[in-house]
Amino acid sequence: MIPLCVPHICGNEWSYIKQCLDSGWVSSAGSFVSLFEEKFKEFVGAEDAVATVNGTSALHLALRVLGIGEGDEVIVPSMTFIAPVNAVKYVGAVPVFADVCRDTYVMDASGLEELISERTKAILPVHIYGHPVDMDEVMAVARKFNLYVVEDATESLGSKYKGSYTGTIGHIGVFSFNGNKLITTGAGGMLVTRHREYGEYARYLSAQTKTITENGGFYHKEIGFNYRMPNLLAAMGVAQLEKIEKYIETKIKNAQYYSEKLSTLKGISLPTRKPWAQNVHWLYSVLVEDGFGMTRDELILRLKEEGIETRPFFMPVHLMPPYRMCRHGGLEVTLDISKRGINLPSSVGLIAEEIDKVCHAISCARSG
Ligand SMILES: Cc1ncc(COP(=O)(O)O)c(C=O)c1O
Question: pTM of whole model > 0.85?
């Protein structure tokens, strides 16, 4: 089986995790946590980075830090994994769904203004599958209406918008180190920001708002969360980060190879890269058009028979029972590409022969 996207573990992971085990520093007070935060913030170019137990908790913290709460509205794409939408609900706010662009699959910033009401507090762009959202447009709308921007960069670590890593452009950005992400800690996340005060507040909230009194006791001024990343996971994160440049290079090279091989195939729309974007192609994704000769779901089954694991695009979140009543603009593109989109195998360890096999299988499927 050629898997969809599996981790690549080939560096200092064992030795750093062993250091945690040997020293007994396994939970979040260990030194790998701050080391991972330091190195990560340097890598992406942020002022602060706060390591968390997963990306979802980092999203929750981001909204909480910015004071988004009961009754506020947050504009999110419907074409996304559900986690950022759930995070909006965790703080008592309401998601409002925006459409996406057909070529990049990410939030269409040109439709944002018409979704804004007096309750709108934030925009939450999600750089799905790796292509950046047009952040200048998002930031311009945010400035005009005095809104916060939380970037969900969980799927786009390594992608750049006009030279800046995704996640570093809005007020707060969030990453995930789930097993299928560019680098992994098993489960883990990171909140990054250019604003030191947001980072400090996020760190405080993530550790149950714990302050130590003179006699060594704990004092908690407000309700916090147990969201700190444990040392064991951070140790793995430091090792993975040492290889990230290579991983990014490989992902981009593999995507180029996919595009070369599939470029002549009728009925398959290839992913775009806008001139202002570096797309890491976290998941190399294509659209199966009407002229292909079989539906996207038939293609998924055919590839499965050939030992190739793929995944359909996200089912739009506004169709899920908890979110069916939410306000939204036109979602024609979301509905269209959710039926056509397919993620192809995209592991860092994917080799050219495997890409050949995938492309050959797609080509054979087309010709029956
Ligand atoms: C777009 C998006 N946002 C948020 C998350 C949540 O991250 P985590 O699984 O680390 O909680 C994910 C998935 O992993 C995701 O794909």
Answer: yes
